[in-house]
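Page 37, top half.
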Amino acid sequence: MADILTRICKQRELDVAEARAAASDEAVLAAARAAAPCLNLADRIAAVPCEELVVAAEFKRASPSKGDIACDLEIGAQVREYAEGGASVISVLTEPTWFKGSLEDLAAAREAADLFAAETGKPRPLVLRKDFVVDRYQVLEARARGADTVLLIVAWLETADRVRALLEVARSLGMEPFVEVASLAELRVALEAGSRVIGVNNRDLRTFKVDPDMTGRVVGELQRLSGGAAAAEATDAEDRLRGAAAAAVVFAFSGIKGPSHVRELRQSCGEVSPLRGVLVGEHLMRAGDARAEVAALRGAWPHKAAASVASAAELLASSEPGARSKICGVCTADDAVAAARAGASFVGMILCPGTPRSVGAEEAAAITASLRAFRETESSSLLGQARDRKAHMAARSFALVRAAARARPLAVGVFRGQGPSEVASLAAAAGVDVAQLHGSEDPSDAGWAELAVPIVKVIHVEVSPATEAAQAAAATRAAAAAPEAEAEAAVTSALAQARAWAPVASALILDTKIKGAAHGGGSGVSFDWRLARLLTEASGGELPVGIAGGLTPSNVRAAAEASGAFLVDVSGGVEASLRRKDGALVAEFCVEAGRARLQPE
């Protein structure tokens, strides 16, 4: 079976033949020459001060690996948000079969970019046709529809001659292309062809898996090539390669999950490097506020090293805005993948027998396998510090959140009252990434320190049975109000438990326990969400806290903002029936959680 890149490009060859039958090269060339003037990508990048990040914000309706992302999103409104956030480039996927794009999207993006510039007096963002270019015809089409630049993929074009030929076509129309590479060998091809703007695709287009270190390796190779002393016996070709490497600028493509990732890229590539920008697609398409998210990406440059940030609250605030969603009580692989497509950071499976949503180790392994197949990046290396019991809890939590962003979603096994040896055995059999302890486990048991996966510990907040209306009133009580004695007692109790678990846990979740009930959780009742923020404050910002209990798509944003919780955990609130999730509710929950602003204005 052909790999994904080959299948896409072969289809694009058929598409070009069909388009050419309807409009000749000459006709499209004439339209290209008559199109509105374009801006030069290399010139625009050079005009941006080095201390500023250049953001290419992408409009992408779907992808082969993620399926539908935002098929119904109105492109004009999205482009406007990108431009208001400060994006320098608007990337538009125009491949129709797998990405559900079109040339109409490209033209609409250019129209929206022109309108933004006319109304605000600010520079117009450049418009990129991002596609699988297999023929010069597509370059002409791009210019005819208003594109300023196009993408050329070395993995398909393969030789410097083929890349150079398309570069010349583009430059003859005033366009400077992005030339995409995904390996050091492809980098050399791009440089030999005379490429000026290199887009490093961290994703292998043949498998669609992501290598998060590829950008750093390409930047290092460029620095090595350009930094060598000119040798007397060097050939003209070697001199040209050195010169091309010295002049090239780099953008990181694919797998960019937010501001924290930008900071890590900057840190790994060095303060002075050819890395000048990032292209971000899915992350922005799923963002509740694309304008704010583009601004946050730009604000992440220059980076603030995570090692210099002391508290859990600061660490988590320095990553992506919004609360991370955990969809729990998942019983089928289909529901797990639906949660993944909706943008959930964690998917939970109940591994304690006798509960309504429990699954066996084999069922859980099948669910976990479906999540691993969905992921672009593997979680194992990313979770290293999250498993390190010697690290501070805040650092473990930050590593956990970062892993969930890079290898989204992480698989969580939920346990209740089981000892370390049983948890370890079931976690290994199910292949989960994280163990969530939901019962009255003993934090002093030495076995927890030996667990091979990070631990998330649930702390129960006891509430009195009450009507739904009374519970809702308690949950939405103003954060500025003075805490009642009952709230102070709850914080004191939770703080003692939290500190007992701090040596081994990577994060905490507050969940409801009805007074008199045998077990906590699963009541569908919320507690006073302020308690999570009060707990964090009482710990001096050292304890990362999530919340569960009574959450739904309609209240999750308010809950996250009142609590400051980095993680929101839902099960029954997004169900179609017991053991089955409602995909629309899951998607709404994830979107609303992502829109939350966790830090008070």
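Page 37, bottom half:
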Amino acid sequence: MELSRMSPQVTVSPQIAVTDMAAIRAAGHRAIICNRPDGEGADQPSFQEIEAAAKAEGIEARYVPVQSGMVTDSDVTAFGEAIASMQRPVLAYCRSGMRSATLWSLNEAKTRPLPEILAMAKEAGYDMNGVARRVANGGKTPTDNADVHYKLVIVGAGAGGIAVAASLKAREPGLEIAIIDPADIHYYQPGWTMVGAGIFEPQDTAKTMGSVIPKGVKWIKGAVAAFEPQNNAVILDGCRVVTYDRLVVCPGLKLDWGRVEGLVETLGRNGVTSNYRYDLAPYTWQLVQQMRGGTALFTQPPMPIKCAGAPQKAMYLSADHWHRSGRLKDIDIHFCNAGGVLFGVKDYVPALMEYVEKYDATLDFFHNLVAVDGPGKIATFEVKEPEQEPRRIEMAFDMLHVCPPQTAPDFIRVSPLADQAGWVDVDQATLRHKSFDNIWALGDVMNAPNAKTAAAARKQAPTVAENLVADIAGRSAVAQYDGYGSCPLTVERGKIVLAEFGYGGVVKPSFPSFLIDGTKPSRAAWFLKEKLLPPIYWQAMLKGREWMAKPDRLEFVPE
């Protein structure tokens, strides 16, 4: 148990256990405040269990839960009221102690000067500079006096954010736009599969952020902490406030590496790799070249994930190298998929199955990776087959390629913009928010039922641009997104199964079948992936040139 004394009356700590209660009492604490919502972690005791153990020791307990990443003004008020009404000294806890320390700092803002609060928090081991502006404002979020205002604000400078900014500038050169993103580098993520197969060089998939932001667009280099759509405000880390007339939200999604026990500690060594990270894709290729025999596991977590075909692309290209070098017969390949099908659009499955059989790969469906012992070379899977009791199995490996679990970013999940699953809630045709009519979203973060791919963002950006320009002009939406997504499945070096589809898995080919038949492996599709798509991304999509991406006219009035 790690206790950090914020003041004589309040101590904070990370998650406590039922067995800690006697020690908490011995340390002099007379009350406990739980700031962690029940069910946040699998190994977390419930508040009811903590309360019962506290009562047995004569300690009062109060439940004041706060969502991770979002300490609201009402949370601070509730915390202050609890402190005032309970016996002291009080111990407040959450997962790491940070939420409790933040609540204390903001509550103390009514009576202590900012430098004193920052110093006391620092002495206790917590850096409160990120909420200094709120502390200076008496503990309240100061959205009424913005640091800066823009006609249009875009959150996220990935593929979707840069593309929609460029498409808007192409239509309305004088439109005042700011784009918010803390990253220094912009990545062409679809290229990482090719890096992991030794085809692309890593540096060819990266450019400085400043070089890709469209001319005339203001770059606010910062991270979003929260949204207040009722005030047309975005709050950044450090409590800077940016207000807007209209907002586009496209920060991508979160790769939740930490959800697989032991994974973070072993990534990039012990034969554990992933093409989902720029720095790890070269390690994939290193492992593929070095492997002479043994077991290679390729994993896919539950949907949704970005580029649903990427986990098996890594398998096919690795197996192709082993086949060409005469090693395949000595390597046991497993594709461990948390889902129950190889690919979600059935038209492309027969061609893929031919390669599964060619490479003698075992398809382990309903296998979800939950833990990795890197030094021991053991992967643990939770197996949830239909009409059977869940079970856990262990599989030894020599090489493990991991696709991490993926969610919406924390600041999206806890925001008023999110649906119950945590994704930005939009109309799937117009991509306008269902509750806030001056907000749009695109890319991986929104909840339209399409594949999360760069090709999807390429089609979504013009749709958002058209509808936003129409809104500025006082007109209704004019364009609709049909769910288009593309997944070039690299089944071997030199051949691709080009999957293209829209909402409902409807096949939507971009080329005539005599040129590229997407249901069959094609050298023309490989040429498209290797030679054409990178310059199309950098020089067309990110420049507002909408080659083969013109938005469809809206055929109906959305509900």
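Margin note: The chain has three domains: 4-127, 148-253+408-553, 257-405.
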